[in-house]
Design goal:
Number of helices: 10
Order of helices and strands: HEHEHEHEHEHEHEHEHH
CATH topology: TIM Barrel
Number of domains: 1
Shape: globular
Structural class: alpha/beta
Strand content: 15-25%
CATH superfamily: Metal-dependent hydrolases
Number of strands: 8
CATH architecture: Alpha-Beta Barrel
Length: about 260
């Protein structure tokens, strides 16, 4: 097992390990991450009030990077602007802008505000020269329209925790986006999503946990953590008919190239 693990180098492209879910065992969680063959992770912002936590994690560990942004459904008192996002993104371990996007499943924030916020983030990503991390939930048409209108191809980005159909994925790919899969691709009912994971071009495929949410089978119902990205990788490797080592190498390289690390 130790020799097998030494060959597997995974990268969790999207997690939230600054959250209070990890207060009691964060150091142990990072130890499990390393023991599980996960060589790095990107801790993704959901608001600007806690960016200092993400910076601290990245500054303390050489295998952690972070993003800056405001989640589409975060009820922020002050809306982000391009200058603020770009200033925060100057940190040497900040690798992306987001997460941002559109969410019509839970509308804590009105669609109009979500759209303005989304456009602001894309413009900041283009200015900063960093990819944009996109949250899209039951908002395929709106998300693709905004990505196209804002010329996201100038910065590229990631459709994180992808849960839509192949038509949406293919349009996003045409706009310059990578497609990242989380634990939901392992769920029994998600044959269609596994079909999408089978079709994504090698160079645009990424994996993530979205920790602490969406723990994959066989950990479903538990708190998620970066070490569990291995189960996402195993599932996608199986549907693509390749080895876990091949899938790990490809997705880790893709993450490092997309984030320029």
């Amino acid at each position: 097992m130790a020799d097998e693990m030494a060959e597997i180098r995974l990268f969790d492209s999207h997690c939230h390990v600054n959250f209070s879910h990890y207060t009691d065992d964060r150091d142990a969680m990072f130890e499990r991450m390393a023991a599980g063959g996960v060589e790095g992770c990107t801790v993704v912002a959901v608001d600007l009030d806690h960016v200092h936590e993400l910076k601290a994690l990245a500054e303390a560990r050489d295998n952690v990077w972070f993003s800056v942004g405001v989640h589409p459904n975060h009820e922020a008192e002050t809306e982000p602007d391009v200058d603020t996002l770009c200033k925060l993104a100057e940190h040497p371990r900040c690798v992306a802008i987001g997460e941002t996007g559109m969410d019509f499943f839970r509308e804590h924030v009105s669609p109009a505000i979500q759209e303005r916020r989304f456009r602001t983030h894309i413009r900041a990503a283009k200015t900063a020269g960093k990819p944009v991390i996109v949250h899209n939930r039951e908002a395929d048409i709106a998300s693709l329209r905004i990505l196209s209108e804002e010329g996201v191809g100038e910065c590229g980005g990631i459709m994180h925790c992808f849960s839509s159909d192949w038509e949406t994925a293919s349009q996003a790919i045409d706009l310059g986006m990578s497609i990242s899969f989380s634990g939901n691709v392992t769920f029994k009912r998600n044959d269609e999503l596994r079909g999408v994971a089978e079709k994504v071009p090698d160079e645009l495929l990424m994996i993530e946990t979205d920790s602490p949410y969406l723990a994959p089978v066989p950990c479903r119902g538990k708190r998620n953590e970066p070490a569990y990205v291995r189960y996402v990788a195993e599932c996608i490797a199986q549907v693509r008919g390749i080895s876990l080592a091949q899938l790990a190498m490809q997705t880790t390289m893709n993450s490092r190239q997309r984030f320029i690390i």
